[in-house]
Specification:
96 residues; alpha+beta; S16 Ribosomal Protein, Chain: A; 4-stranded antiparallel sheet; 4 strands
Length: 96
């Protein structure tokens, strides 16, 4: 994670970085962001999984962000799937 933001208002970019570089130094790729003060987070899960498969080691915080984003995506998919597969009832016939 790369710290950005002002004093007492931290925000972080979730990045892929070589271990030899400084925390806020050169990065390989930016995957998303995390704002702990406002509970905002976004990450490209597919790219994160790609880098983990290549040997990248996420920090505990990044691992928990990935899990939360996956859970939110699964819940959203389940909601849309349930809404799409719900039977549509025909309107009641009106008697004249």
């Amino acid at each position: 994670m790369k710290r950005i933001g002002t004093t007492n208002m931290p925000s972080y970019r979730i990045v892929v970085a070589d271990a030899r570089f400084q925390r806020d130094g050169k990065t390989v790729e930016e995957l998303g962001f995390y704002d702990p003060k406002h509970s905002k987070e976004k990450i490209d899960v597919a790219r994160a999984e790609y880098w983990i498969s290549k040997g990248a080691q996420p920090s505990e915080t990044v691992s928990s962000v990935i899990k939360r984003v996956k859970a939110k995506a699964a819940a959203a998919a389940a909601t849309t799937t349930a809404a799409a597969s719900a039977p549509v009832s025909a309107p009641a016939e009106q008697k004249a």
